Amino acid sequence: MAGFDDSPDSAYFTPPLTTVRQNFDAVGRRSMDVLLQRINSPAETATRVVIRPELVARQSTIGRLRTPPAR
Fold first, then answer.
1. Which string of DSSP letters, residue by residue, matches the chain?
2. pLDDT tens digits for range 39-63
3. For residue 40, what pLDDT is reported?
4. d(CA 38, CA 40)
5. pLDDT exceeds cutoff 60 at 65
6. Which residues are in the Transcriptional regulator LacI/GalR-like sensor domain (predicted)?
7. Total of domains in the chain
8. Helices (DSSP H) in 1-71: which residue ranges?
9. What is the pTM of this model?
């Protein structure tokens, strides 16, 4: 099981919840850069920007140690 946006509480669930963390600072900075570029050069074509999120793997998705099956 996994969550999204790295809610502060997700690390305290049982088991701690794996989540996807977004870099909102980078999104905001890059958005402003693109907006200002478009204002200053409206004839330019659209810009596609990808800001990769970070997977924070916690125990909700990390496999458990398994004991060997009974014989």
1. -EEES--GGGGGSSSPPEEEE--HHHHHHHHHHHHHHHHH-TTSPP-------EEE--TTTSPPP-PPPP-
2. 999 888 888 899 999 999 988 887 6
3. 93
4. 5
5. no
6. 2-61
7. 1
8. 24-40
9. 0.64
**Partner residues linked to 20 by β-bridges:** 4, 55
User: Residue 10 has what DSSP assignment?
Assistant: G
Q: What is the mean pLDDT of the chain?
A: 86
Cβ atoms of 3 and 11 closer than 8 Å:
no
Say if 32 falls within a structural domain: yes
Residue with tokens 């140690």: 65
Output the furthest CA–CA distance in the chain (Å, rounded).
73
When pLDDT is averaged across residues 16-33 and rounded to a whole number, the result is: 94
Which residues lie below 8 Å from residue 15, measured CB to CB, with a gap of 6+?
58, 59, 60
Cα angle 57, 61, 66 (rounded to 5 degrees) comes to 125
